[in-house]
Amino acid sequence: MVDPLSGRANALLLKLLDGCAARHRALTANVANADTPGYERKDVRFRSALAEAVRRPGVDAIRSVSIDAETDPHAAKRADGNSVCLDTEMAKIAENRLTYEMSVAVLRRKIAMVRSAITGRP
Amino acid sequence: MAGGVFKAMGISSSGMTAQRRRMDVLAMNLSNAHSTRGPGGQTYRRMQVVFETIKDASPAGGPEGGVRVSAVVPDMSPLVRMNAPGHPDAVDGVVEMPNVDPVIEMTDLVSAARSYEANVAAFRASRDMIREAIRLWS
């Protein structure tokens, strides 16, 4: 029987939620430090690693994807050594939030499926 | 899971607090732009805030990754010398006025207000994400 609340699809959704939460934390820290001299922007790059893990079999590949915040070496620095651009951070926050909401929406669908199986109502 | 987003709210509020302190100092500079008798009886010097990233979380210091005002230091650039023989604080007809340029303070004030708003927007995004996760149960 297919269990709708476990397995690979669920591991992927939970990793997406965790990754988006970690990325949101890194991006808000960037916004808070937009005027701190010498601060280098941080980001969580997990999407490509996650896409790679999905192609491999098993749940462990997905679960072991790293969601640690890392310093972004490519961002251009201002004269005071700070590499935060407020507009791009806000755009990234909006984009990241949509990914998060999308994951929540899919998860909600799955929970609704289980609920309808329990109650027998659609 | 959602703990990450809750922590983001703390980081955003540390940004709001720091920007508000910056605005306080800017307002102090503007109102003292002509004070020849500042703290200690000397001519007022422009004050500046120093921002610092919080590296170790502590209850008093704020969340790790956030920002705090680590110091408020005087700007030691030269004071403005003005010829005013009638001024009570004049020495040999010259009075030293504060090194406050209202134009610089005002532009800085706009920048601080924008940064504050950005932190508010980030805070709202965190709040909506948590709300979205709560709705999983309804």
Characterization of the model:
The complex is a heterodimer of chains A (122) and B (138). Chain A has four helices and two strands. Chain A has 122 residues and is mainly alpha-helical. Chain A has a two-stranded antiparallel sheet with strand order 1-2. The longest helix of chain A has 34 residues, at 86-119. The relative contact order of chain A is 0.20. The model of chain A has no long low-confidence stretch (mean pLDDT 90). By secondary structure, chain B is an alpha+beta fold. Chain B has one domain (3-137). In chain B, 45% of the residues lie in helices and 17% in strands. Chain B contains two helices and four strands; from the N terminus they run H-E-E-E-E-H. In chain B, strands 1-2 form a two-stranded antiparallel sheet. Chain B has a two-stranded antiparallel sheet with strand order 3-4. The radius of gyration of chain B is 21 Å and the shape is elongated. Classes of the chains: A mainly alpha (122), B alpha+beta (138). The A-B interface holds A 14, 17-18, 20-22, 24-29, 31-37, 39, 42, 86, 89-90, 93-94, 97, 100-101, 104, 107-108, 111 and B 1-5, 7-9, 11-12, 14-15, 18-19, 22, 51-53, 65-67, 111-112, 114-115, 118-119, 121-123, 125-126, 128-129, 132-133, 135-136.
Percent of residues of chain A in beta strands?
under 5%
Structural class of chain B: alpha+beta
User: Element order, helices and strands of chain B?
Assistant: HEEEEH
* Percent of sequence in beta strands of chain B: 15-25%
Secondary-structure element sequence of chain A? HEHHEH
Largest interface: A-B, 33 and 38 residues
Mean pLDDT of chain B: 90
**Shape annotation of chain A:** elongated
> How many H/I helical runs of chain A?
4
Radius of gyration of chain B: 21 Å
Return residue spans of chain A where pLDDT drops below 50 for at least 5 consecutive residues.
none
The domain count of chain B comes to 1
